[in-house]
Write a structure and sequence with these properties.
With 50 residues, this protein is mostly helical. It has helices at 9-20, 22-29.
């Protein structure tokens, strides 16, 4: 992506502005955030089990 960033300054700016929003920034800094992986997008949230 670093090679592509100069070609898409608007997208990079949007990414940075979204990441800076207070609730999103708090999530990105939290322990709830899992690292990127290529093995699936689903995770388990025990607090949501009924």
């Amino acid at each position: 992506m670093k090679r592509q960033e100069p070609d898409y300054p608007g997208l990079v700016d949007l990414h940075d502005r979204v990441a800076a929003r207070p609730n999103i920034a708090a999530y990105l800094a939290s322990k709830r955030r899992i690292p990127f992986n290529e093995y699936g997008i689903f995770r388990h949230y025990p607090e949501l089990d009924g």
